[in-house]
Amino acid sequence: MTDTQENGVLATAQKLLEQHTLCDKCLGRQFGWLSTNTTNKDRGYSLKLTLCMSADALLKSGKKTIGNSGIRSLAGNGMFEPAKALAEKNGIDYETQDSCYLCTIDDESVFERIPLVAERIVGLAKDVEFETFLVGSIPPPLLADRQDELSGIHSIMHAETLKSHFNRELGIQLHDLLQKPVDFMKPDVVFVYSMESDEIKIQINPVFIYGRYRKLVRGIPQSKWDCKKCRGKGCAECNGTGRKYPDSISEYIGVPTQSIADGSRFKFHAAGREDIDVLMLGNGRPFVIEITDPRVRTPDLDEITKSINDEAEGKIEAHELVLTDRYQLQKLKEDASTNVKEYEALIETERPVTEKELQKVEESFKAVEIEQRTPHRVSHRRADLVRKKVIHEISLKKEKDGLLRAMFKVQGGTYIKELISGDEGRTTPSIAEKLGIVCKCAELNVTAIYSEGP
């Protein structure tokens, strides 16, 4: 139809319908980002109607060859009822079509599935607690390839993808059924529909719970520690347990939390870690427990606290639990090496020291920066780097049994045992270096961690 050639949109729509069978929705979405505030279906219907009116005008003006061609493609590939009526009225033959080139799978438009898919999602989600949702879909590669091919051949620059169109229509129906809002940024759940396999998967976003723990006995690692010899499989050395140590702080906290939140697994994140032989006292160490696939998003935090503490039997205590988010987790990790921490230690010295010597050491460690090369004892699992740490204050007092009691206020990430011993010169300056004698940490406790909660 020559009168559409100057109109890019109509000319493209006409060429598409001459070559392929397209429903109103799929024709309309080829121009989905033009003249918004309407639907693709209405957009496609309007294009077909305009082309049909133009073809009818050509028929009436005597240009039957061009007019017949237009009516034929609209009635056949366009599946357009007004064009079918004109074809019947004017005796125009056309080939009947009923399957859209861009949205049909197994003789069915994917859009026709949406009501049933929405109902299936509601059924699958009935036991999942959530307030916000988002929908996604996986279109068949064949249909995606067809769209890409048409866009390339006809230089289509404003098309909306099948996936985007389908997601929006499914989301609208789900919103009506669930009476819950869509959240494009941080949804509680995401429903993903595979068009090819006709399967639905629910992606439940994690729950994050912030808290603090106190470690009240020595000999408990922060993380699960498998037997090195069998790597967790079980052997004679570990008595078949697969473990070097039978328990861990992460499990005392994570297992009850996962159970109550009805999740599939947990990840334990803490603001640093204490050695296995070190106590965590004071207000405790901040942590975030991340629960994957939680079917309960607002678990009873008092119940979790009680469950953790009952299971730990006085070995650890958890408190101050609050629901938080991924941002707090990231902040926890970022702050772990910069916040201020306090420690208490007992130090063995190779000879008795004087009050004057202790006073001199205290003065030398007021607001100073030290350098710590990765200690020998952790070099197998940490990069060999030199880290600069700020020592805010050290206090030293003699005990009756010949030991020194030390109080430290330092930057997070400082290795206290090496600050005491010097670690063969890898930490400088150190208490041993300042005293000029061998010093060894006999006992160490973390007494305070200054960190902002959520």
> Helix and strand string, N-terminal first?
HHHHHEEHEHHEEEHEEHEHEHEEEHEHE
Helix residue percentage = 25-40%
Apparent shape: elongated
Query: Any idea how many domains?
Result: 4
Number of helices: 14
Low-pLDDT runs of 5+ residues are 1-5
Described by its quaternary structure, the protein is: single chain
Portion in strands: 15-25%
| Major β-sheet annotation | 10 strands, mixed
The counted number of beta strands is: 15
Rg from Cα:
35 Å
Cα end-to-end separation: 66 Å
Under the CATH scheme, which architecture of the largest domain would be assigned?
2-Layer Sandwich
Mean pLDDT metric: 94
CATH topology of the largest domain: Alpha-Beta Plaits
Structural class by SSE content: alpha+beta
CATH class of the largest domain: Alpha Beta
